[in-house]
């Protein structure tokens, strides 16, 4: 193990944990793919299981023999620098209490194309401009648990590899295949790609032509893309118009909508029915 005790908070090798924003980490190795920070042994382990390459670790020294031991003993972690410091030093360094034991700086992978992500998929989720990383993480967790084969995101969405998103997802961002939709008007470009791949599209929105999420026609579709919109305004009118279905979740007590993360769980459970064994 390449164990390095931290003696100064100003060490340049600690910049990636303490002084660089997630946006700066994204561009860290340009023109090659950048870095992201994974937090907690479970999230880090799932990233490694998915073939991501660790750059360094930051943790309390006591966690080398506790929460972090199984991670550090993995072959792919041999020789990777392990920076350690007392709890109060790490709190000052990172700006928050490192309650989950460890952080890991990880190399990003090249983004795959839509065709690659959707190959063999029958149920996919599409997120349009979902900006809150907590919501993105929660949606990925529901997608993994509730029968989604892949997730596509428009460029306006929060990055699933941002630390908060991956932590909220419990590492499922490394288990569900995903990619970004190319920039531009995706309803004119990528929507056509989905149709060529055989997908019917279902916009989660309230409109005069909305059908119930329990409509049998939806579960009978061989391939279905479930599209969820931004937290405030929902889906763009052009997106709704371009979809085969507009779908609503029946509600009571005068409530007309759910938080996008909650709505995703309901939608994936019901519309992922065709994926259940």
From TrEMBL:
tRNA/rRNA methyltransferase SpoU type domain boundaries: 124-268
One function term, GO molecular function aspect: RNA binding
Keyword flag Methyltransferase: yes
Family annotation (Pfam families): SpoU_methylase
Keyword Glycoprotein (UniProt): no
Keywords recorded for this protein, A-Z: Methyltransferase, Transferase
InterPro entries: Alpha/beta_knot_MTases, Ribosomal_eL30-like_sf, rRNA_Methyltransferase, SpoU_MeTrfase, tRNA_m1G_MTases_N
Top-level taxon: Bacteria
Gene Ontology process terms (BP): methylation; RNA processing
Protein name (database record): rRNA methyltransferase
